[in-house]
Amino acid sequence: MAINALVPRQIKQPAEDRLYDFDFTNLLGAATVAASPAPTVAQEKQNLIVGSVNVTLGAPVISSPKVQVRISGGTAGEDYKITVVARDSAGNTLEADGHLQVREL
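Structure (tokenized):
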């Protein structure tokens, strides 16, 4: 069973390349984010613009209770749902969803 954690909405500019934290604190209790299997990251486009470019998602890095993901690229005006799925040391599957807006500010 996946337990969903909501990650705050983030805004980035198209040229930015930086780490984003997905915080599992409220879901872990005494457990920690496990290293195996490694967390997975996926994206879903929202507010599609023709000819747009996906964001680039780096490999997730565990810094329990957080999972960090490097995010770059994307098209100004588009929104992306970023999902991180991780397993904790108690064997639970946890899911954190983030809403990323790419905007030229």
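The longest helix spans residues 25-28. The chain has a mean pLDDT of 86.
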